[in-house]
Design a protein that fits this description.
Layout: H1 2-7, H2 9-25, H3 33-55, H4 60-76, H5 81-87, H6 90-117, H7 128-153, H8 179-182, H9 188-210, E1 216-220, H10 228-233, E2 237-242, H11 245-253, E3 261-264, E4 277-283, H12 292-302, E5 303-314, H13 318-331, H14 348-357, E6 361-370, H15 375-383, E7 392-395, E8 401-407
The protein binds S-adenosylmethionine (SAM).
Length: 408
């Protein structure tokens, strides 16, 4: 009985090492798609080995099959070393080395357990040690199959910012000039259409909460002033900052109140004192740079306690890839490459977590989508132009774009 349990020891050690690898190391780093799939492949090959003793009697051909599968499995688990070399640090390398040693030991001990159990499920009067062996073989298969399901369902450590992301093209805003306001053959027309929905929502929300009070509002990455200018027209004291001096000039030209303070500034380093603003807006900006934590930290710093933070960005889902990246590239004229980069899209849960870390509690999240069953949408698909009748709408689904607000 004791010796039967002993054969289970390498498997237990391997389980502990795998858990450490999964929860201590994989979660701290990026897992590229191929490595993630490779891990699932390793587990599948291991499962195939473990299934042999459970399903087959230990005859010579079956032993050859088991040996072949075991050798392939031992080789297979080393394949990711090319990726590990780039992405892992010392501790994880050491753990992998331990796993490479444990893996053949587990397979050898499984082979011995197989012998101990004997001629398989057909034997009539099994000894207690045989029964225990059978249970242990079954337990191994159940645990490894469960781990495989976990691996497939959960891609650990996947961060949007994988190494080698294409660089987002933020220079396009510089050359737009008046096209910010009148181009229909450019994706900026979609931004304008989206801004129509967002601006009225922000204004209505502020009115409901603060009534006619004039608020100090900062519009971060304000672009051509689609939000800043209407907010100023509604009586608020608005500051708009953007990296693009050209865009700021256009925004200024369209400010009928002549009251907005437009400043060239990097959102990663705001030159305002702590707690300066009642409201901060970041529309269509978080997906334009990798340093989201930094810009939200800065926004939170310059927001007064109890102040509001409005945002709009894109979710990282296959649907948003199809509609917000590929759809726009295929159907809207003059869409430059890398205007959006999928890896920079942000899942709502990620945004909520960043906000929480920076002292902002997200209170409202609303999905945003284009109205697809309209003539304007059809016209865009056929002509590549986005007319001023093109509309966006709020939707319960946050699969594509979403906006919301958080309170400090
Ligand atoms: C998609 S536009 C959004 C403009 C505006 N918020 C709107 O919704 O109409 C993105 C803007 O981000 C600006 N931008 C990019 N990186 C920036 C940074 N680090 N700091 C400030 N603005 C930045 C670009 O110049 C551009 O105007």
């Amino acid at each position: 009985m004791n010796s039967t349990l002993l054969w289970f020891l390498p498997f237990s050690l391997q389980g502990l090492a795998m858990a450490l690898d999964e929860f201590a190391f994989h979660r701290r780093r990026v897992i590229p798609r191929w490595e993630w799939l490779g891990h699932a492949l390793d587990t599948s090959a291991f499962l195939a080995c473990l299934a042999c003793p459970l399903l087959l009697t230990p005859t010579t051909p079956h032993l050859w099959l088991f040996g072949g599968l075991a050798a392939a499995s031992c080789l297979l688990i080393t394949k990711d070393e090319f990726i590990h070399q780039r992405l892992c640090k010392g501790g994880e390398h050491w753990l992998h080395a331990a796993l490479f040693l444990l893996h053949p030991l587990v397979l050898i001990s499984t082979g011995f357990l197989w012998f101990q159990v004997g001629p398989g499920p057909s034997h009539e009067f099994p000894m207690p040690s045989q029964l225990l062996g059978e249970w242990m073989l079954l337990l191994q298969v159940i645990l490894v199959a469960g781990f495989l399901v976990f691996q497939l369902a959960h891609r650990p450590g996947l961060k949007p910012l994988e190494e080698g992301l294409p660089e987002i093209n933020n220079t396009i805003y510089d050359g737009l000039g008046e096209r910010w306001y009148d181009a229909t053959d450019d994706p900026v027309a979609l931004l304008r259409a989206e801004a129509r929905l967002r601006t009225s929502w922000v204004m209505a929300t502020l009115w409901t909460e603060f009534g006619p009070r004039s608020l100090a509002i900062l519009d971060v990455a304000c672009g051509g002033g689609f939000l800043s200018n209407p907010l100023a027209a509604a009586g608020h004291v608005v500051t708009g900052i953007d990296l693009s001096a050209d865009s700021l000039a256009v925004a200024r030209n369209h400010d009928i109140t002549d009251s907005v303070t437009y400043l060239p500034m990097d959102a990663r380093k705001l030159s305002f004192a702590d707690g300066t603003f009642d409201v901060i807006c970041m529309m269509d900006f978080l997906e334009h740079l990798p340093e989201r934590e930094e810009v939200i930290r800065e926004a939170s710093r310059v927001l007064r306690p109890g102040g509001w933070f409005f945002f709009h960005t894109f979710n990282r889902t296959p649907l948003s890839w199809l509609l917000a990246i590929k759809g726009v590239e295929w159907f809207v004229k003059n869409t430059p490459r890398n205007m959006h980069v999928y890896g920079l899209f942000l899942k709502p849960s990620e945004l909520v977590a960043i906000c929480a870390r920076e002292g902002l509690e997200v209170e409202v999240l609303r999905g945003v989508r284009p109205r697809v069953f309209t003539w304007a949408f059809l016209r865009m698909v056929i002509t590549g132009r986005v007319s001023d009748r093109f509309r966006f709408a709020f939707t319960p689904s946050r699969q594509v774009g979403y906006c919301g607000w958080a309170r400090k």
